[in-house]
Structure to design on (861 residues):
């Protein structure tokens, strides 16, 4: 059991009040962990962004601020509250909070880190409410709270019994306890059980659930024409034919964009097709070929300040028996969430109302307030469920567009991107390249030198220099370079590592082959060194990595493949989670095909196992899909793929069966939305190399000199 | 603009629309049936799948003028009480992640099972290949279809 303080310097993490209509209400801050960062402690009601209420009739409601992007946090996180509150999960109602409800103003969205951040604060909220209910019952019965227990929404003490609802109003008058006790993981009854996604019914019955489904009386649909290429600006346009389209009610220019307002989406699309716009190049119109040349050159450039250097790399390479050097390359990638970007805005003289799928409501509110020059208090943001995020919805560009259009049109509007808009007005995964070099002497890796280069700002970092194999190799050096571009780039599921891991794990496989050692053993040897006698500082736990490697090797029958199967191994640490994978590749009509992926994961306590398996499987499928097919080029600033006929996503027949195994432990839970993705492409590449003898260095694999089954 | 009388989920509805308006937008914007989703608009992703006389079609690519007397079924009308064996299997396997593609997946799978009650693994994969799930829930989709087939 963990004793946890609810108060720090009188700045409470919790606020308690009577529930309107009778009952107890506890407000708390979803994303702030009481053990860390005291400055974030909420002090007033408006700082609370989540609520737990127990009504007089016994109804337990958890209001979660977390927008759902498919990572199941809207279900998993309330489970933590219910666990400590001691109520049956089936009796809990989970609601999504709205930013415009005053108290929800400080809402922040979560990603892979949600569970990690909420682990203590959510349980504390539940435990506090439970303790107050117990204290109230004890007072009523005139006995000590220590003689009372709470289970299944009922408090017992001596011969007395009271349901939570019966005592909730009295509980609201109790002092907030100074500290509360959290349950021992072995006593969990909800955490660790599989619970359905709370929006499941809406999803499978087709109820309006997503931002794109939102509508408001009097609203117009806005379709936007944006510059066709990065670096271009709008010179002039002719909207005569657009205005003649039935359903089109207005055409409005804003900056370098033109909004077509229509009574339905289709009329807006047609209106846009009929619009004639002239564009001119204002900035450089960039090309992928040129990016590639420049990045390759950067890989051969010595940086004045390496990101890390242990030992003497120069000497290690000079004295090596053998030097192995390989370059790996990856393109830009669009996010392609299934639900295209969209947002609703209603800008009036008194308020700015924004509703839609965005992961950063606070940032969005602030940038809209700045854009329209309005006080922040007048701007509200409500979040809907999101049809996928993968990083794209961290950026509020679509909400800004909606706000600007509504303010100009003086009408409520919903901006909807077509798939072409979504793919070509992206905030892409930046293209990147890596050069790996290893010095081998007397059968050991004595030197390691990684150089990364990618499209980004001077502050971008393309490497994770304190992660594997850091600490495990005596002479070790990491450098990183950036190439600036006017093509917008940003976070894409498992930023940086989504390709860094493929490159690194492919390289270790090649090293193993060159050194004639087993690929798994090579990694274990390096980790053993990092564990027992690390060189310099490391920010991963070798022991945990060894744990998942062994589990994956065991469950995937590493080294003992089925007849006709070639295996590929990979492992990676990200978002505080450790994952190892074994790809099972078979030849089908003479071409390689990935049939199965065995996956071992250490993410601490698994809160909701079915949902966790779904996340891991999804990450693996995503990783394989983008390694195989992800292809996105620019010519004169113009994206060369616009829709799914030109951009290939992995489909049902191409997705391998993904077996998922969790390391069982009682550590605090860590991220799950992203960590299974980075290692997948490496395991795939290594399996293909084994099956075909061909090593793949460039994404997409499907475009390399090999055909696939 | 023209008037169309459409049979949707067993009910007769009248809409006024341009003849080239895809059924997808008639359903979503004119009839307020939001279960059918927009993903690509060019028959590539399957998010907009509905049944036209029992056959799965991409509603983004079927103009309203082509529907005529044919019966349209959407996710909202697939089963009374939303208890189609596939919907039950979807509950059992808790298939969705973001959920956006799922109505299309279910509608496509329903058409498959109505013409082939016990599809093989390959038949499932082939039939479902037109429906993209960006979240990668394919393992669960396949498992749920198998469960539904077994229960039908
Ligand atoms: S929206 Fe119709 S197939 Fe994609
Ligand atoms: S569940 Fe997200 S696209 Fe399928």
């Amino acid at each position: 059991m963990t004793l946890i303080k609810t108060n720090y310097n009188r700045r409470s993490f919790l606020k308690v009040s009577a529930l309107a209509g009778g009952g107890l209400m506890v407000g708390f801050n979803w994303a702030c962990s009481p053990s860390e960062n005291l400055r974030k402690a909420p002090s007033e009601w408006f700082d609370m962004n989540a609520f737990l209420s127990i009504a007089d009739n016994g109804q337990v409601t958890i209001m979660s601020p977390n927008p759902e992007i498919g990572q199941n946090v809207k279900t998993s996180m309330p489970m933590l509250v219910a666990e400590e509150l001691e109520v049956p999960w089936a009796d809990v109602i989970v609601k999504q909070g709205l930013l415009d409800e005053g108290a929800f103003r400080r809402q922040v969205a979560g990603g892979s880190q949600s569970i990690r951040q909420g682990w203590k604060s959510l349980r504390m909220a539940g435990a506090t409410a439970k303790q107050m209910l117990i204290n109230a019952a004890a007072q009523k019965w005139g006995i000590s709270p220590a003689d009372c227990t709470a289970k299944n929404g009922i408090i017992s003490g001596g011969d007395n019994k009271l349901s939570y609802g019966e005592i909730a109003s009295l509980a609201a008058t109790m002092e907030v306890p100074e500290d509360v006790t959290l349950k021992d993981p072995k006593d969990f009854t909800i955490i660790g059980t599989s619970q359905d996604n709370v929006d499941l019914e809406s999803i499978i019955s087709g109820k309006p659930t997503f931002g794109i489904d939102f509508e408001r009386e009097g609203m117009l649909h806005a379709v936007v024409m944006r510059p066709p290429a990065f670096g271009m600006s709008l010179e002039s346009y002719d909207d005569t034919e657009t205005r003649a389209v039935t359903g089109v009610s207005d055409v409005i220019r804003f900056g370098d964009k033109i909004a077509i307002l229509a009574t339905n989406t289709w009329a807006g699309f047609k209106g846009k097709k009929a619009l004639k716009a002239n564009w001119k190049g204002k900035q450089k119109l960039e090309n992928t070929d040129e990016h590639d040349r420049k990045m390759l050159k950067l890989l051969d450039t010595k940086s004045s300040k390496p990101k890390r250097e242990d030992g003497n790399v120069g000497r290690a390479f000079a004295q090596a028996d053998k030097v192995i050097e390989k370059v790996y390359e990856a393109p830009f990638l669009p996010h392609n969430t299934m639900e295209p970007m969209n947002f609703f805005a209603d800008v009036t003289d008194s308020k700015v109302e924004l509703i839609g799928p965005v992961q950063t409501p606070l940032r969005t509110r602030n940038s809209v307030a700045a854009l329209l020059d309005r006080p922040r208090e007048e701007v509200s943001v409500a979040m809907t469920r999101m049809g996928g995020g993968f990083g794209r919805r961290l950026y509020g560009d679509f909400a800004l567009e909606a706000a600007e259009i509504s303010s100009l049109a003086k009408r409520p509007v919903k901006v909807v991107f077509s798939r072409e808009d979504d793919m070509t007005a992206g905030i892409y995964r930046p293209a990147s390249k890596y050069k790996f070099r290893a010095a081998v002497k007397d059968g050991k890796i004595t030197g390691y030198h990684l150089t990364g280069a990618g499209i980004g700002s001077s502050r971008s970092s393309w490497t994770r220099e304190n992660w594997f194999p850091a600490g495990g190799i005596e002479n070790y050096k990491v450098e990183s370079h950036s190439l600036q571009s006017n093509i917008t780039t940003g976070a894409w599921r498992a930023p940086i590592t989504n390709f860094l891991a493929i490159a690194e794990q492919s390289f270790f496989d090649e090293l193993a082959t060159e050194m004639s050692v087993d690929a798994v053993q090579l990694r274990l040897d390096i980790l053993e060194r990092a564990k027992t006698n690390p060189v310099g500082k490391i920010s991963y736990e070798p022991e945990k990595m060894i744990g998942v490697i062994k589990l994956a090797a065991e469950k995937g029958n590493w080294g003992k493949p089925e007849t006709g199967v070639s295996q590929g191994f990979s492992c990676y640490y990200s978002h505080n989670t450790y994952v190892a994978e074994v790809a099972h590749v078979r030849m089908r009509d003479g071409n390689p095909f990935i049939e199965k992926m065995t996956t071992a994961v250490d993410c601490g306590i698994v809160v909701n196992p079915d949902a966790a398996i779904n996340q891991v499987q999804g990450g693996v499928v995503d990783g394989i899909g983008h390694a195989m097919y992800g292809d996105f080029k620019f010519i004169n600033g113009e994206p060369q793929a616009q829709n799914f006929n030109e951009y290939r996503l992995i489909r049902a027949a191409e997705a391998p069966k993904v077996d998922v195994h969790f390391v069982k432990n009682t550590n605090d839970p860590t991220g799950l939305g992203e960590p299974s993705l980075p290692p997948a492409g490496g395991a795939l590449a290594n399996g293909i190399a084994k099956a075909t003898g061909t090593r793949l260095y460039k994404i997409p694999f499907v475009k390399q000199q090999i055909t696939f089954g | 603009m023209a008037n169309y009388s459409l049979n949707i989920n067993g009910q007769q509805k009248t809409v006024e629309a341009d003849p080239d308006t895809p059924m997808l937008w008639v359903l979503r914007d004119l009839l307020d049936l939001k279960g059918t989703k927009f993903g690509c608009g060019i028959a590539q992703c399957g998010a907009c799948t509905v049944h036209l006389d029992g056959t799965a079609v991409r509603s983004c690519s079927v103009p309203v003028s082509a529907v005529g007397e044919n019966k349209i079924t959407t996710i909202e009308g697939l089963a009374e009480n939303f208890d189609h064996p596939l919907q039950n299997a979807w509950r059992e396997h808790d298939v969705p992640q973001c959920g956006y593609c799922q109505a299309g997946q279910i509608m496509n799978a329903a058409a498959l099972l109505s013409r082939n009650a016990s599809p093989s693994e390959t038949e499932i994969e082939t039939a479902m290949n037109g429906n993209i799930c960006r979240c990668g829930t394919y393992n669960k989709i396949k498992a749920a279809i198998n469960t539904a087939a077994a229960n039908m």
The two ends of chain B are 43 Å apart (CA to CA). The longest strand of chain B covers residues 2-8. Residues B 38-41, 43-48, 58, 60 surround FE2/S2 (inorganic) cluster (ligand 1) (CB under 6 Å).
